[in-house]
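Task 17 of the worksheet. Students: predict the tertiary structure of the chain below and write it out as structure tokens. Keep your answer in the requested format; marks are given for formatting as well as content.
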Amino acid sequence: MAGILLLLQACRKTEAGGQPSITIAEDTVYAGKRAAVSALIQLQNVHLIKELKIQLETTPGKFSEYVRIPAAQLSDRYDFRFEIPADKRDVYVFLIVVIDQGGKPIDTKRLYINTQTGLLPVKLTRISRLTGVPLAGEKMANPAPTAQWNIGGTDLGILWDMENGQTGIFFGDTYGNDFKPVGGGPGGAGQWRYNTLGFSTDADLEDGLSIDYMAAEPGNDNFARQIISRSSNGYTAIPSGAIHVKGVDYVHYWDLKSWDGFVTNFASLYQSVDHGRNWTRCTSVYYPGGSKFTCAAYAKKDGYVYIVGTKVLRGALPYLARCREQDMLNQPAYEYWNGTQWILNNEAAATPLFNGAMGEASLTFNRYYKVWMLTYLGDRDLEIRYAHDVSGPWSGPNVLVSTSLYPALYGAFVHPLSTGKEIYFNMSQWVPYNVFFMKAELAFIE
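Model answer:
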């Protein structure tokens, strides 16, 4: 009995001498159409807390004081109530900060209040690193150590079903193992390749995406080779979408002239008839600089290939085209959506699919919800829109991933095996210029 009492006393002393801390029941609260919402904040060692501060993000990365609760008004549970302003934002970001008796911030948590409705993610998880070397202290899974193919830094990770049990993964500008993930982008890294290509047979996506092998230099399986070449006056050649059609794999790419304004020489296709081992240029499909399909996302359904394109990489309006599968290389047979009907062989007739900026994009049909989905970089965040018909009308944008949570993000390329309530996708971050594998659980919020 004495031993039990001593143990209980020791536990009480440990608890009493512990640090103040907070736990939030849900880090994201979905308001839907409600005028106000509440979030339960649980406090540990409340007797050691001087005050609780709640700050609201006013501009990206900048917070101002929203409310301050002194110790006299605190217990071990605090119910934070937020009334949605009339000019509501899509997502409100709060910092919950515990201040100890010495006036020192001792614990901080983020709270997101999402006021959007429609199809949106109700839970987001960064499952694994797909490329590059783990950073100091990083704990996420790393099932695809790309250093074995001399890849230290890269981006994009465009995914498509090669229909032979493999998923293709096209990466953008790629740098070698001397790459240092500091400052954003490639920095002074060497062994530059304009693009590289990986192959995966991984169908168990819950623990991350693995890469079986990369398209490699002949005689050197440990060096991922460049697939798409640039033109004589091009700076680099960047893939934007890929698809498998009638036994052939295609990748759409754009030949960059200048990063300043994303000036492009032209866009075109490469094809592979041997499951990605060898690739050749498709000269019969050509988009001049300024084309509405300079960048493109692909999907196919009911015998058609659908193409959502933009004039430049980011900040551009999207347009829609289609062709029958057998006409993939017959560009004069392409049709363009003018808002009411399909117009044959007249890109100029294409009108914006919706009024909103679109960057790197992925087009998919979700079989569970029976809707088309576009995931892409918007003005700031990764966004998701949906439509019952690919020609629209399309929903407004909902936040898929917030840049407040993952700074300098871009690209949202959906894995072809995820077409249900959960979607898996690749997301790039400029810092540390690598690709990460994400999961979002989707729901319709009213």
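Marker's comment: Confidence is low (pLDDT under 50) at residues 1-16. The domain at 120-445 is CATH 2.115.10 (Tachylectin-2; Chain A).
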